[in-house]
Amino acid sequence: MHVYAFGSVCRGEITLDSDVDLLALVEGHDPRFSQHKYSIYSYKKIKKMWQDGSPFAWHLFLESRLLYGSDGEDFLQSLGAPAKYQQYVADCLKFLSVFETAQNSLKQSRESKVFDLSAAFLSIRNISTCYSLGVLGLPNFSRHAALSLVDGGLSLPLTPVSYGILERARILCTRSIGRDISDAETDSVVEEFGKVDSWMRAIVEHARQYERIH
Q1: Neighbours of 22 (CB within 10 A)
Q2: Nearest Cα to 129, choosing from 119, 139, 144?
Q3: N or C: which end of the chain has fewer CB within 10 A?
Q4: Dihedral of the CA atoms 94, 98, 104, 110 (nearest 10)?
């Protein structure tokens, strides 16, 4: 059994609303680990992710820190670097689809606004991470990954205020912490979604061009 910390605590991005992401590697069911507190994986599953070069495998390889190993060894580091990430176009398209679903839901109703805004934030963050890892070769797993795509005309066309609202929604949705999102705040963010949609499509097109060349 191995236990790791990963995420913002390992990147030094601690804020008042940060949590500690924990990973447990186990063989079979282990009642000591709750799915509410740990990301729980089998060794077989982790090895498959390493072989596939998944973004999460790269995230763990670059940023995880061993807290406990029953054999005294760092299992993840013993695997070496994950395989090259190949699925970046498909993953970028997937997160574009997540964004479009959230955008359409918000245009129709405000009943699930926190969930929809949270999904929009997740899609913006993750498409940026997939692009940075697959195309730029400069993986960025930060919650602010989208703000780092400043070259090639890919700067996120979202005001800092709107980005902050989306970030609040994500924290509200996942941890129930923070101020609620008003309808006025939601309206202000949705007004910018057309530009964000075009930005995400540009990322997909850049990724496709890179895939054709490489």
Answers
A1: 17
A2: 139
A3: C
A4: 180
Contact indicator for 169, 186 with CB cutoff of 8 Å = no
Q: Which token pair is 133?
A: 């890892």
Residue 113, number of CB atoms within 10 A of its CB: 22
At 15, the pLDDT band (50, 70, 90 cuts) reads: low
CA gap 70, 87 in Å, rounded: 33
* Rg of the chain, C-alpha, whole Å: 18
Same domain, 133 and 200: yes
67-116 confidence digits (pLDDT tens): 999 999 999 999 999 999 999 999 999 999 999 999 999 999 999 999 99
Domain that holds residue 145: 88-213
Q: Is residue 161 part of a domain?
A: yes
Q: What is the mean pLDDT of residues 20-39?
A: 88
CATH number of the domain to which 163 belongs: 1.20.120
Task: Tell me how far apart the alpha carbons of residues 137 and 146 are, in angstroms, rounded to a whole number.
Answer: 15
- In the prediction, which pLDDT does 14 show? 66
All residues at 6 or more sequence positions from 180 whose CB lies less than 8 Å from its CB, including other chains: 114, 172
What residues form DSSP beta bridges with 66?
4
Rounded Cα–Cα distance for residues 10 and 20 (Å): 9
Distance CA 44, CA 27 (A): 9
